[in-house]
């Protein structure tokens, strides 16, 4: 009974209808209303700026769209249950947030699964996936070989490391990550390669799990770790558990005098992380909507819609944190950076 109640809440639809501007065909003096396309959105931790960008972009177009929004509440079990609802409902397109959700919905490209087990025939556009190839979602970015395409939000790791190097005295980077999340492991390996190429030391602090009840203990241990290791900066990867607890992580790291560089914008804007070179979630959501529109209304096949990242990135600096740390980014960053305050 408990499972049924949780399942019911997870499947409580929030449906947004867009009437939009409807094109008319006058060849026979009869107006033809375009059919409403249903987009089924599966979220991991509620609506983010990525979803706002996606929906705003879709609704600003003339074609009529219906959104069905399901939030898994950070539960893999709920994603699996939602997947069954998608297979029964058969929407026109599926939107998925993040690596975990997308992997559970669609499975790996290399795996052999039937259409009634994973979503294999309905077009799926993923968003905010750090490493689509590494996660096994697609093997070819330019011409996806399955029903899955989408957008990645992560700035290339070598570019991020170069951004950190613009700060004075960066010789050792500390990274905290969830050792049981493939998405986090892929980022750490990419960070290791980029640091090696740049001649920077990387020290790793793996979390045993994503237990919210133990988050304070984990971060207190991390503060001791970066102090003992003499880290110059903390790298906060794109990880849902760490982003959700970013305020605590930033407080302990900054309390130890070590600035936090964030791979995503949320911790800088909302949790006081020092800075980052990022793809704005809203813009990435708009880019995902562009791909969805190609599939829904332009007659494109998934193989014709490449997996891509944005071409332009943004420096964001939290000036309150810079003042508290008494450490200001150089002019080369500040000339183009967006400055935010807590």
TrEMBL record:
Coiled coil region boundaries: none
Superkingdom of origin: Bacteria
Keyword line: Signal
Keyword Signal among UniProt keywords: yes
Signal peptide (from-to): 1-27
InterPro entries, A to Z: ABC_transpt-TYRBP-like (IPR007487), Peripla_BP_I (IPR028082)
Pfam families found in the cross-reference section: ABC_sub_bind (PF04392)
This protein's name: ABC transporter substrate-binding protein
